[in-house]
């Protein structure tokens, strides 16, 4: 990316690259969130520019509760031995956080109103003459909340992941929005239907044994706490330093399963030299003809069969809108990876692959069978291995 000495960005593409987003998202931010973009006089709406300092100031106002948006996933170690990795896919975090807070106040108010209505009816003899006991108060409040919760657009986001513990007993704090609450007492050791974590680095060596904490997994997690903005767990036994991690969380209260998941990907620190790094993922088109551009470094040279249609042992795309723990894994959407023990038969249409950029023009093979298709808004993951040294990384986000 080239910039003037004063930090000016001279196109939508440069602005999007600086923010780590696609051009469509940046245009929407300018329209809906007052992103500071300027236009040259007499140029209409096509020629635009922006100043890096103004964007930085805008980010500080938009994302006070989140890490500043950057072009790359970043990790940093502190004196405590912990490390935090932020997710550049967290879109408009402050606005979302404000909405969560407003929603909580609205739900509390609705619950209180429901209780007051029941009290009023009871006093007038419409319910019954005896006053309600405390358990009935709680049930009435819960019912009032439950009736209204389903009307809200649950759409979880992972903003950051903090690692702690040691290899063989790794723990994480997952911070974000709209996680909901699990309907079981915590702490709990075992599997849940609303959370899964996989070690991408071990897929090629030990397929089928690299996932923990999800329904039917043999490797369990100890879930310590779960709130709308934070999930903490320990006893993740599979990952070693440098391994690529892919995790997904589903809001247990959400009825819209297509958008009920949030996906995050990154590496356990310290990241090993030569590990692939994904700086941005851009989506254009829709459905079968979804075009995906992955940019970064350390991807390696093009594997056999690229360009072309098929699978490789170096890239996989997953769609986490498919959350059916009661059904076999083959019903999940997985595309492009030939080494997995269970393959759903969806291939990728590779246009090009270089050390810094991969371009995909859509899906082939079994795409569409059994209803396995991608939609705008779906939470997706990208697992990527370097074609030479086989080191891996992972990325998680949402199709705009």
Describe this structure in words.
The protein is of the alpha+beta class and 400 residues long. The protein folds into 3 domains: 7-56; 93-149; 157-398, no CATH class. 19% of the residues lie in helices and 32% in strands. The chain has helices at residues 12-19, 23-33, 52-62, 93-123, 134-149; strands at 8-9, 38-39, 48-51, 75-77, 83-86, 157-166, 169-177, 188-190, 195-199, 211-212, 221-226, 230-236, 244-250, 261-267, 277-284, 291-297, 308-310, 315-319, 333-335, 346-353, 357-365, 379-385, 392-398. It has a 7-stranded antiparallel beta sheet. Strands 15-16-21-20-17 form a 5-stranded antiparallel beta sheet, with no helix packed on it. Strands 10-9-13-14 form a 4-stranded antiparallel beta sheet, with no helix packed on it. Strand 20 and strand 21 (357-365) form a beta hairpin. Helix 1 crosses helix 2 and helix 4 (93-123) crosses helix 5. It is globular, with a radius of gyration of 23 Å. It starts with 7 loop residues before the first strand and ends with a strand.
Provide the fold topology.
Blueprint: E1 8-9, H1 12-19, H2 23-33, E2 38-39, E3 48-51, H3 52-62, E4 75-77, E5 83-86, H4 93-123, H5 134-149, E6 157-166, E7 169-177, E8 188-190, E9 195-199, E10 211-212, E11 221-226, E12 230-236, E13 244-250, E14 261-267, E15 277-284, E16 291-297, E17 308-310, E18 315-319, E19 333-335, E20 346-353, E21 357-365, E22 379-385, E23 392-398
Antiparallel strand pairs: 1-3, 2-3, 4-5, 5-6, 6-7, 7-12, 8-11, 9-10, 9-13, 11-12, 13-14, 15-16, 16-21, 17-20, 18-19, 18-22, 20-21, 22-23
Helix pairs in contact: 1-2, 4-5
